[in-house]
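Sample entry (121 residues):
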Amino acid sequence: MTRKILIVDDEFFITRSLSFMLKKEGYHCDIANDGQKALENIGSEKPDLIFLDVDMPVKNGYETAREIRQNPAWKDIHIIMLSAKGQDIDEKRGLEAGANEYILKPFDPRAILARVREILI
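Predicted structure, serialized as C-alpha cells:
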C-alpha cells in the first residue's frame, strides 16, 4: 500500500523539492497551495501525513490545522507544520491548532525523510 502525503505550501520550491524527494522514496504526493485547497484535497483523498505551511493565502496553516482536527474522520492524520517563524509562541500556536510537530525552514531534507519513515512505518 502506497502511503499518501499532502504538501501544503505556497512556495513552489518547497512543494517541488519535498514532492520530488518523497516520490523518489515511493510515497504518493499531492500538492495544495493554500489551506482551502488542502481541505478540499483531504476530503477527496485522505492523506496519511500532511506537511502544512503556516503563512499562506486564503487560509493559513493554523486555521487549516484547526479545521482538520474538527473533523473526526481526519483526527488520525499526522500534521507537520513547516514555518520560518521560530519563536516559541509560533510553535505553541501551531501545536495548539492541532499540528503534531513544528519544523523550522530551512529544513534538512534527510532529517525530513527520516522523520517521514518513522511516522509512516
